[in-house]
Design brief:
By secondary structure, the protein is α+β, with helices and mostly antiparallel strands. The chain contains five helices and six strands, in the order H-H-H-H-E-E-H-E-E-E-E. A six-stranded mixed β-sheet has the order 2-1-6-5-4-3.
Length: about 160
Amino acid sequence: MTTPPRTPRTHADAVEASAHTSADAGIDAVAVERFYAAHMQLLDDGAATAWARTFTDDATFAAPSMTEPVRGRDGIEAGARAAVAGRAAAGEVHRHWVTMTVVRPAEDGADAVSHVEILATPRDGAPRIELSCVMRDRLVRGNGTLLVAERVITRDDRPHG
């Protein structure tokens, strides 16, 4: 019987947890980093359908701007399409910068916790940090690739709740 991984409570716990390798879960930090690079470039390039396909069919996506989590790939795609349209209407380009990712093995894949900054650049304007947040993902393997099964976003400027 395996003991479920515990949530890191301190920086030292997180560093220790990040030391786990692919031997523990079949998903290592390098694979996760590569996944996020491709995943976020799809979103930033406006490829909502392709981006949504990086989630499982029954994935959940929760963010503070939502009253309820979005459930399922179709709902996630609809939200991405609306975000892409909103950025186009505002005349802005957004870049999602995923940093300081800690990957921990989980029974069905891996848990990844990352800091994410969204850089917004308006046409003929200066870039600004639009948002700073923490992204918590449950990653699984599906069809030979990584997929997001669950995503929870918390904003740095709002109390956790």
